[in-house]
Amino acid sequence: MTPVRQKLVVVGNGMAAGRALEHLFETAPGRYDVTIFGAEPRVNYDRIMLSPVLSGEKSFRDIVIHQPAWYERHRIDLRAGCRVDAIDRAAKTVTAADGSVTRYDRLLLATGSDPFIVPVPGRDLPGVRAYRDMDDVDAMLAAASGGGDAVVIGGGLLGLEAAAGLALRGMRVTVVHLPPHIMERQLDPEASALLRSELESRGIAVRTKANTAAIVGEGRVEGVLLDDGTILPAKLVVMAVGIRPNVALAKAAGLAVNRGIVVDDGLATSDPAILAVGECVEHRGACYGLVAPLYEMAKVVAARLAGDGSAAYGGSTVSTKLKVTGINVFSAGDFAGGEGREEIVLRDRSRAVYRRLVIGDGRLLGAVLYGETSDGAFFLDLVQARTPVAELRDALLFGPAYAPAELPAAEQPGDSEPIAPAEPERRAA
Amino acid sequence: MNVPVRTTCPYCGVGCGVLATPGPDGSVTVAGDPEHPANFGRLCSKGSALGETVGLEERLLHPEIDERRAAWDEALDLVAARFAATIAEHGPDAVAFYVSGQLLTEDYYAANKLMKGFLGSANIDTNSRLCMASSVAGHRRAFGSDTVPGTYEDLEEADLVVLVGSNLAWCHPVLYQRLLAAKERRGTRIVVVDPRRTNTADGAELHLPLRPGSDVALFNGLLNHLAEAGAMNQDFVRRHTSGLDAALDAARLLADGTAELTGLPQETLDGFYGLFAGTPRVVTVYSQGVNQSATGTDKVNAIINCHLLTGRIGRPGAGPFSVTGQPNAMGGREVGGLANQLAAHMAIEDADARNLVGRFWNAPHMAERAGLKAVDLFRAVGDGRVKALWIMATNPVDSMPEADDVRAALAACPFVVVSDIARHTDTTAHAHVLLPAAGWGEKDGTVTNSERRISRQRPFRAPAGEARPDWWIIAEVAKRMGFGEAFAWDGPAAIFREHAALSAAGNDGTRDFDIGAYSGIGEAEYDALEPFQWPAPAGGPVGGRFFAEGGFFTPDRRARFVPTPASGTPRGTGPRLVLNTGRVRDHWHTMTRTGLSPRLSAHMAEPYVEMHPEDAAAAGVAAGTLAVVENRRGMAIGRAVVDSGAQRGSLFMPIHWTGQQASRSRVDALVDGVTDPVSGQPALKDGRVTLRPFPAAWYGFGVFRDRPATLRADYWALARARGGFRAELAAAALPTEWRAWFEALVSPQPEHELLAFHDAATERHRFALFDGERLVAALFIGPDPLDGVSRSFAAQGLETTFSTAGDRMRFLAGRPGSAAPDRGPIVCSCFEVGTNQIASAIGSGRVTIEAVGVALRAGTNCGSCRPEIRKLIAAATGAF
Q1: Is B813 on the interface with A (CB under 8 A)?
Q2: Do both A397 and A353 map to the same domain?
Q3: Is B331 helix (H, G, I), strand (E, B) or coil?
Q4: Among the residues of B22-152, which ranges form H helices?
Q5: Is pLDDT at B832 greater than 90 in this prediction?
C-alpha cells in the first residue's frame, strides 16, 4: 500500500533547493509531492559558473544543473517565473504572484539573496546592473558588444570576476573599491597586492579607497562620480558590493528573522513546518554566500525532510576561489594574524606564488594561497576537521603529497568544490 | 675509441689494476683490469669513481712563489738556493723532506737519493711513518728484514683469517671481496679483532671487541695457549728460530689476566684460541689498528710470534700479513725512503751498507745516521732546528698528530716547499714555494702493493698545466745544487734500472729485496712491464712466499721471537674517552681527490663521531645532533652517530675532514704525538678526549651550484654533489635576519629569483634561489638537525629542471612528495641506490644481497656496499 504523500512546497529554484531535493529523492523517493516556485523563468542552473559564461568560456547550456526532464521525472510541479507573495502559516498555504494558492505540509524556503545596491544617486539609470543571475549576464554581454568603458563597483570576488570577464569581452574596465585592498575578506594584503598587479597587467584599472558618490548620466549611465571628484566614464556599471539574504517573505509571515531567516541546527525556522536553506538563512549568527555551506545545509535539510531527526548542521568553514582563468587564488578559514596565531609563509615573488597558513592551538585555522592553489581542498579539510597539525607541520604548506596517508579524509569529498560567485562581503545596510 | 691504458689504482695498498680510457673531452672512464693479479677486474667504490676525480678545477697548475705565479726556472732556482744556503749556514740536518706513500717508486728513489747521498742528512721521512712503520719495525725485529712473507692468494687458501685492527671491508674492499668469495667457496672462517664492530665484523663468524690497545695481551694469551695446547711446530722452531723462551716468559707473565686486560670473556678467548690452534691454514691480517699505536711494534711481533711458533708462515694459506694503507708504502720502503732506513732494504746503521750505497751513487755527502722520524721532524721544524722543509704529495697539517702544532711549525718555518697536485690544502696554505706535480693518469712509474707486487702506473694524458713528475722536479733541484750528473735520468725507466741495480748490488741473497733481473730493463720493456712480485734476482726465481723453510735475513738466518710484555694499564690520566680514528668507505686521506667526486661524497657527507649509546647518554648527546670532542689541544665537531657497535668509552672519528671541507673537524689536532718507541709511529687511534653536545641554536643544510666563498657558521661541512656542493651547517647563535644571511652566503645576481619559506614560531626557514629553471642555491634552517629534509633529494635539485612554479615551490618541502619516493641516504655509490629503495626491495621479498642486486643493481659493481646491504636485510628480516 502506498503511503499518503505529503505535500512539499519549495520557494526558490536555485542551487540550494536543487541540491536538497536531489538528496531527498535519493533517500526518501516518493515521500513528497513537490512544488517549486522560482522567480527566474528558468530551470536550476549553476550560478557559480556565471563568470565563465560572461567571459565566453561557457554557454548557459553548459551550466544548467537540472534539465526539464529532471523535473518531469520527479513529477515536480515547477512554477518557473512565478514569485511567491505570501505564506499563510495557519492555513499552511502559499500565495503566488499569479494568484494561485498552494497547500503544503512542509515548506522549504530557499529564497537566496539579493544583490546589494549602493544607495547613491543614479543607481537606477539604465546600464547599471547587479551581477547575480543570467539576466545580468545577458545585459552585460549586450553592453560589452560595442566595447567602451565599464566600471565595476566592488573589488570582491564577484566584482573581480565581472571585471575580468568584461575585459576579456573587450571593455576598458575600472574596479572601484572602498577598502584599501581588493578581496580583503578573502585575501590578506599580500595576496591582494599580487592579485591587483595581475589584474592591472591585464589592463584592468583598480582604484582602492575609492568611494562612489553618484552614478551620472542623461537617460542612461555615462559615468561614475567618486567622492574625490573624479569622474570615471562608463557605459556599463556593475554593482558587486555584496548580497543581502532575501528575507522579505519570511518576515512578512512572522518568522524569526535577523539578518537572515533564523534557523536551528535542523534548519527549521521558528515555525517547525517551515525549513530554510541557502543564502537566505542565518545559522548561529552566520550568513553564507558560498556554495559549499549551501550544499552542506542542503544535505541536512534533506535528511530532516526525509525523517531523520538527528541530522544537524554545525556551521561551515568557508573557502574562496576566484574563477578567472590564469589567476589562482584560494582562501579558507580564519587567516587573520595576531596573538596566539602562528604563520607559515612561502613567497616566490617572481612567479607570483604566495602561501600563508595560520595556525593556532596546534590546528590549521586558515589558509591563503596565491598562484599555486592546487592544495586548497587539503587545507580546507584540515581546517574543517580541526586535525592536529604539529606532526605535519614541517611540510604542511606543501600539501597532501607530504602528509601521511592515514590523515583523515574530507567528510564529503564530492562537496569539496569551494567555489561560489555569491558575495559574502556585506556592507552595513 | 681510445685504447684503454693499463695502470694501477692510486688509493690503498691492495694495488688494483685499472683500465683507464680517456675520452676526447678530457674525461676518463675506468674499469678493473681483469688480468691484474691483485683484483682480477674488481674495483671498489673509490676506484670505480676515479673518473670523477681527474678534473682540473682544484689543481695546482703552475709554480707559485709567495702566492704569485712563477716560472719553473725561478721556482727551482729558489728552492735549490735556499736549501743550499740553509745547509751551508746550519748544516745538512737543518733541511728535511717529508714525502708520501703516494709517490711513485721512481720519485721516492730520487728524493731519498738526493737527501741521503747528496744533501748529507737522513731527514727524509714520509707519511708511511703514520701508516706502517710499526710493521716495518716488527718485520725487521723478527725476520731481520722488512718482508711481507705471503701473498693475496693466502687469504683465499686459508681456513681461518684473523683480521686485527683492520676494517678490510671499507679500507681494502677488493681484498675483502676476494676473501668473501673464498669464504663462499671453502667456508673460510673469519675472526675480527677490533674494538669497534665495523662493517668488516658483519661478515665474520666471530668479533672480538677487545679493549683498545690490548692486542698484545690477546696475542700473548694466544702464544701461551698454542704452546700449552701442543700446537708448536717443534721442528720449525728448532731449526729456524731463536728466542722462544724469553717470548713465552713474557707472554705468560700476565696470561691469567688476559680476559681482564682485553675485556673479553674467557670463553670467547678460549673459542678463538682453540680455533687458531686447530687451524693450520691461518692468516693474520693486520693494519692500522695494530700499527698506529704506542705499542704497535710489539703488537706486530706478538702476532708474528704466534705464526713462528706454529711454523705457519710462508706456506699457502698461512702467515702474518700486513696490509698497507697507501698505494706505494711498500715502494717507499723498498727505496729506503724513511729516516731510519738507507736504501734498498739496507740499514742506515750499517757502515758497510752506507759505503756500498755511497759508492753506487757516487755520493759526495752520505748521511751517517738516522734522521728525524715524522713526529720528531715536525717538532724540529717547530723549534727551529729544521729551517727548510720540502713536503711532497701529502698534507701533514691534517694527517699528523698534534696537527695544530704542525701547522704552527710550518707557519714559523723560514722556507717551506710543497709539491702537490692540489692548489688549496691546509698544508699548501703555508708554502713559500708551490710546485705543481703530475697527478694520477699523468705520472709514469711503478708502485708496489701489499703483496710485494710491482705494477706500472701509466699515464693516459699529458700533465695538467705546467705540472711535472716529482722525480723531474727533484732532479732539477739536484742539478741546480751541483749534482746534475747523479740525477741525469731521461725518464722513469732509467731510475727504475738504477733502483733495480742497487737492490742487487752486493746482495747475493743477503737482502730480501732484490729485483736485479730488471737492472737492464729497456724502455719498451719498462713500458710493457707486467705486474710482478719480488724478489726477482738476476737469473733467480721470481716472486712467491718467504720463510716456509726459514732463510730469514738475520745474521744467523733464524727468525727472532720477540718478547712483548703486555701493559696492564692504559696510558696517562686525563680525559676518560679514547678517541679512535680511521677511514670511511668512500674517502681517501684528506679528500683532495675523493672529495671531488659527488658519488663518493654521498656516502658520508660530513665528519661524525661514533659513540656507544651509554656514552652518548652520559654526555647528553642525542643521535643526529652535533657533538664536540675536545681536550687541551683543541676541539672537533662531528655529527653524533650512536651505535651499539661502538665500544663503551671509545669514540671514533674519520680522519678525512680538513679545514678545506669543514670548519672544525681536523681530528688529528686532538691527538698527542705519542709514538711507538721502536718504530716512531704515532698512536693515532689513541686520543684522549671528552664529549659534549654542541650547543646549536640552529642547524642548516644547503645546496649550492657554486662553492660559497665563506660559510659563516660555527660548524660547516662542505661536500661535492652532482652539479655543485652540499653543506651541513650549525651555529651557537642565531643571525639577526635569515634572508640577509642567505643572500650574503650566495650573492644573488639580478636575474636570480628568490623563494622564501618562514615558519617563525618553529624557527624553520628555507630559501631557494633560481636562475630560470635551474636551482642556484637552497638553504634549509631549523632548530633541530632537520630530519625532515632529505639530503639526497635536496642535492638532486641542482640537477633538476624546475619548469613550473609549483615544482620549485615544492622543492622547498625538502623531500619528495608521495609521487616521487625518496631514495634515502645513498648506500651503493656506483648506482646511487639509497636505503629507502633497498628497504622497499627487501619489503617486497628480496631478502638476499643477490636479489637486491637484481632488483636495484645495488652492490653489483664494486661490492663495497654489500656489508651495508646485508645489514639492512638483517635488520628488516630479523635474520642474520
Answers
A1: yes
A2: yes
A3: helix
A4: 45-48, 72-90, 105-113, 133-143
A5: no
Contact B48, B860 (CB under 8 A): no
Chain B residues lying within 8 Å of A359, measured CB to CB = 761
Measure Cα distances from B651 to A276, B569, B578, B646, B689 in Å: 74, 19, 6, 7, 9
State the DSSP H helix or E strand holding residue A134, giving kind and residue range, or none if neither: helix A134-144
Residues of A in CB contact (< 8 Å) with B are 342-353, 355, 359, 371-372, 374, 393-395, 397-402, 405
**pLDDT in the model for residue B376:** 98
The verdict on residue B344 lying in a domain is no
Interatomic CA distance for residues B487 and A155, integer angstroms: 90
Q: Are residues B371 and B495 in the same domain?
A: yes
- Minimum distance, in Å, between the CA of residue B753 and any CA atom of chain A: 6
Q: What is the mean pLDDT of the segment spanning B391-420? A: 98
Is A137 found in the same domain as A103? Answer: no
* Alpha helices, H only, B336-469: 351-361, 374-382, 396-399, 403-412
Q: What is the mean pLDDT of chain B?
A: 95
Contacts of B762 in chain A (CB under 8 A): 342, 393
> What b/e sequence results for B790-807 when a residue is b if at least 16 CB atoms lie within 10 Å of its CB, and e otherwise?
bbbbbbbbbeeebeebbe
User: pLDDT band at B354, cuts 50/70/90?
Assistant: very high
Q: How many angstroms separate the CA atoms of A179 and A389, rounded?
A: 33
Neighbouring CB atoms inside 10 A of A197's CB total 12
Asked casually if ipTM beats, i.e. exceeds, 0.95, the reply is no
- For residue A300, what are the CA distances in angstroms to A71, A272, A374, B862? 22, 15, 29, 66
Using one digit for the tens of pLDDT, what is the confidence trace for B672-731?
A: 999 999 999 999 999 999 999 999 999 999 999 999 999 999 999 999 999 999 999 999
**Residue B871: what pLDDT?**
86
Number of continuous H segments (helices) and E segments (strands) in chain A: 11, 25
Which member of B753, B813, B818 has the closest CB to residue A350? B753
Q: What is the domain extent for residue B277?
A: 133-322
Which structural domain, as residue segments, surrounds residue A66? Answer: 6-114+243-305
Q: How confident is the model at residue B821 (pLDDT cuts 50, 70, 90)?
A: low
What whole-number distance in Å separates Cα of residue A242 and Cα of residue A113?
10
- From B183, B181, B190, select the one nearest B160 (Cα to Cα): B190
**What is the percent of chain B where pLDDT is above 70?**
98
Q: Do B759 and A401 touch (CB under 8 A)?
A: no
Please give, rounded to a whole number of angstroms, the shortest distance from the CA of A417 to a CA of chain B.
21
Please report, for the domain that includes residue A30, its CATH number.
3.50.50.60
Q: Say whether B818 and A394 touch across the interface (CB within 8 A).
A: no
Same domain, A91 and A231: no
A332 CA: distance to closest CA in chain B (Å) = 19
B765 touches chain A (CB under 8 A): no
Nearest to B553 by CA among B235, B248, B149: B149
Span B565-594, mean pLDDT? 84
The pLDDT of residue B867: 79
pLDDT of residue A424 exceeding 80, the answer is no
* Dist CA B621 CA B641 (whole Å): 10
Lowest-confidence range among A131-140, A407-416, B732-741, B745-754?
A407-416
Tell me: pLDDT of A31 over 70: yes
Same domain, A180 and A234: yes
Contacts of A401 in chain B (CB under 8 A): 810, 817-819
What is the rounded radius of gyration, in angstroms, for the C-alpha atoms of chain B? 27
Give the pLDDT score at A409. 42
Average pLDDT over residues B83-110: 98
Chain A residue whose CA is closest to B786: A394
Which residues of chain A make contact with B761, given a CB cutoff of 8 A? 342-343, 359
Distance CA(B705)–CA(B712), nearest Å, equals: 18
Query: Could you tell me if B722 and B866 lie in one domain?
Result: no
